Amino acid sequence: MTCISDLPYEIVLSGVTPSESEKYIKQNSDETFYVPGGYKLLGVVLRGGHEIPVGVKDSDLLFQYVKPCSGLFVLRIRNEPDEVKRLRSDKTVKTKK
C-alpha cells in the first residue's frame, strides 16, 4: 500500500463536505468515475462512502481524500495516463451521466 505523502499531489480544496467535493470534481473533469470505498488509486486506499468520485481531466486525476483528524480534501495528481486507463477498464467502477 502506498502512502499519499509519497505521491506528488496538489491540494485543490480542503475542509469540504462530500457533496461539495463531488460537485467540484464533476465541474472540473471531462469524465467522472465512482469507485467503491476501499478502492486503491495509485496504491492509496480511498476511504469514504460506497461511491467515491474520481475525475479525469486529460491525464490528470481529481479525487476526494479523507485524512483522519484533518477532514476531507480534493487532491489533484497530474499526468497519470496508466491509472486513467485502468479506471476506464475496471468493471467495479461506475460512471454517471
Description:
It contains two helices and eight strands, in the order βαββββββαβ. A six-stranded antiparallel beta sheet has the order 1-7-6-5-2-8, with helices on both faces. Strands 3-4 form a two-stranded antiparallel sheet. It is an alpha+beta fold and 97 residues long. The termini are far apart.
Low-confidence stretches: none
Alpha carbon gap, first and last residue: 31 Å
The tally of strands reads 8
Query: What is the C-alpha radius of gyration, as a whole number of Å?
Result: 12 Å
Strand content: 35-45%
Largest sheet: 6 strands, antiparallel
Question: Please, what is the average pLDDT?
Answer: 91
Run of helices and strands: EHEEEEEEHE
Helix count from the secondary structure assignment: 2
Shape: globular
At a glance:
Helix content is 20%, strand content 39%. By secondary structure, it is of the alpha+beta class. The protein has a 6-stranded antiparallel beta sheet, sandwiched between helices. Strands 3-4 form a two-stranded antiparallel sheet.
Provide keyphrases for this structure.
20% helix; globular; alpha+beta; six-stranded antiparallel beta sheet; 97 residues; single chain; 2 helices
Q: Which helices and strands occur, and which strands form pairs?
A:
Elements: E1 9-14, H1 18-27, E2 31-35, E3 40-41, E4 44-45, E5 52-57, E6 60-67, E7 71-77, H2 81-89, E8 94-95
Antiparallel strand pairs: 1-7, 2-5, 2-8, 3-4, 5-6, 6-7
